[in-house]
Amino acid sequence: MNAPFVPFAPIILSDRQEQFCQQILSGKSKAEAYRIAYGAGQKVSEANGPRLMGSARVIARIAQLREDEAAAQRVSLPFLTRGLYRIAGKAEGSGQHAAAAQCYMGIAKLHGFLIDRQQVDLIVRKPSSSPTSPDEMSEEQWLAAHSIPQVTASIDLEAKPSSIDQVEPK
Fold this sequence. Notes:
The chain is mainly α. Among the domains are: about 15-70, Arc Repressor Mutant, subunit A; about 75-110. The chain has helices at about 15-25, 30-40, 40-55, 55-70, 75-95, 95-110, 140-145, 165. The model has no long low-confidence stretch (mean pLDDT about 80).
């Protein structure tokens, strides 16, 4: 029952057909969905519900709505927790205790009760101008090697003029 689906072209149906599709997605039978959408009697609904469900446009619209619904469902902490609890219950019921324990460990990790820690030993060497530079430097060593020397100049206003200033133009 998979109909071709074009993701960017919405399938336009009448209001009643759209309501029929929505009722089908909510879990109603074909006859019940037809009765709700069209307000028809029991015998008419039993005849026309399956006939409407056979329409290619209705099948394509239901597929489109299902894909939209799947895209809208986000993976969240409660969603993952419910899934792991469900799987753990099935694993316990079938005697697969290791799988059930794994599910409970996953739940504990999701909720922050357990933290996976790994020790990674690396040597971090930042680029430098010299390949022989040390791997570690103190702040004082780095400032001595890389800082721009501070130039301080002071002007003495009461100083005597220099010999250059005393020369008068001719």
